[in-house]
Fold Putative alpha-E superfamily protein.
Amino acid sequence: MLMLSRTAAALYWLGRYLERADFIARLVEATIRLDALSARPAGDAAWQSALAVTYTDQAFAATGQEPTQAHVARFLALDDGHPGSIVRCLEMARNNARAVRTALTREAWTAINRAWLLFQNRQTIGGATATLNLLEQVKGETRGFEGAIHRMMRNEATLLIQLGAAIERADNTARLVDVKYHLLLPQDERIGGVVDRDQWNTILQTVSAVNAYRWLYDDGLQPANVIDLLISRAELPRSLAACVEEVVALLNALAKRTGLQGEADRMARARLARMQKTRTHDAIVSGLHEHLEAFVRENALLDGAIARQFRFI
């Protein structure tokens, strides 16, 4: 059964925007905790890295504010003047959800609407404790939406929402690892030192992977193992390997239901084949920054191919 192209696009972008809102909430939460719990405060460098991960560093620089916790946390949570804030993501998700309201259960719609209502008439984000409470509420509602989607009938609507979320999740994880590896550690800090270890632990917290790391690796916190977990271990739902596999599976399921198959499927399968042959150590040795940049570019190209294949544009 074929659906209207604008309906397919709304479902896909609903998945992307909800996943993005959840990720930004996790990123801000983890950066606050890094700043508060580190042996030395994370300071402006950590908040600058949060802006870099979300591609909002230039937009923030245009405000003329210093990259402090108060300024950056508010910018990433409440500023609706750019597409990289939680409030803007939730607004766009809700707009898309309204366009496909009949495709969603009441439970799924309620989770989106409650998340959106958290930010209505909110002018300030408050201190660290108030911000963490707000972010926990955002994560709770996005988890509620994800759970509702998994309880919906497995049809084109749910598959497109999940496809959008998987594409967004892959992009977020790649950028997160890239910024930590390439930009985050201050020049006067040594690799493997206290600050470096705190930062890698914060990355694990951002993607809810602390327990997964402990299950899979026995030799304590090692940056190479964290990179391996987030790139190559399909057991972790937010790893690149897991996202790549999920995209292929979702496209296969959509092809069976809609008969639409083509460029996006070929690109996704080729990416999966390369991922299965790539070893984390080889990616680090040959240039992890370049490897992750190439992944982000390919993910964007795949996003465009999906749009053409399902006639979003």
Q: What stands out?
A: The chain has a mean pLDDT of 89. Residues 5-37 form the longest helix (33 residues). The chain has two domains: 1-151, 153-312.
